Amino acid sequence: MMRGNGNDGRLHVIGSAMRHTRKALCSRIARLAAAPHDAFIAGWPYLVAEVEAAFRHEETLMEASGHGNLQAHLADNALALCALHRVTPRIEAGDTALGREALGALDAILSLHRFTADLALVGAGPRRTPGSAARFARHDRIAMQIVVRSATGKLPGGRSR
Questions:
Q1: Rounded to an integer, what distance in angstroms lies between the CA atom of residue 149 and that of residue 32?
Q2: Entry pTM
Q3: Is residue 161 included in any domain, yes or no?
Q4: Are the CB atoms for 14 and 61 separated by under 8 Å?
Q5: How far is Cα of residue 18 from the mean position of the Cα atoms in its chain?
Q6: Is 98 helix (H, G, I), strand (E, B) or coil?
Q7: For a 10 Å CB count at each end of the chain, is N or C smaller?
């Protein structure tokens, strides 16, 4: 259970609301990932809209709490949304394999954000824990691969899929 610095119950409530939003989004991602082909395609735009709404809600909570790592978090959200929007036309055209890959990357990003948001709210601020730099670098590489793949149909380095 996350706690503020002793007497700040407000931070606890904000942290709980953020975790709840992320958990609900991760559950939605899992349901869509398990959906059959046609249901996946039909559900994709709704998921993208839910991600956008969840990110807006979370960003509002982060601003209200004085979150110490807000700018980096906003940049990560923007990158994730960019990747989702870039792959949307291909998913709507039937490329559910790419969509399922994007969902896996999004789920990893959301899990990482739950961890880093909790740290910032309990006073860890913008500092990162040992090993987190490698996780951040990996998550950035995955997101960039999705963007490159959606734009070109090829993986970084010119390899075809």
A1: 21
A2: 0.68
A3: no
A4: yes
A5: 12
A6: helix
A7: N
Phi and psi angles of residue 95, each rounded to the nearest 5 degrees, phi first: -85, 75
Euclidean distance between CA atoms 161 and 153, whole angstroms = 7
Is residue 67 within 8 A of residue 121, CB to CB? The reply is yes
pLDDT in tens, 50-98: 999 999 988 888 887 777 677 887 888 898 899 999 999 999 999 999 9
CB atoms within 10 A of CB 141: 12
What six digits make up the tokens of 129? Answer: 């824990």
User: Taking the mean position of all CA atoms in its chain, how far away is CA 86?
Assistant: 15
Please list the residues that pair with 160 across neighbouring strands: 154
Domain assignment of residue 23, given as a range? 9-152
**What's the domain count of the chain?**
1
Q: Is the dihedral of CA 28, 58, 5, 122 positive or negative?
A: positive
Q: Which two tokens stand for residue 47?
A: 């998921």
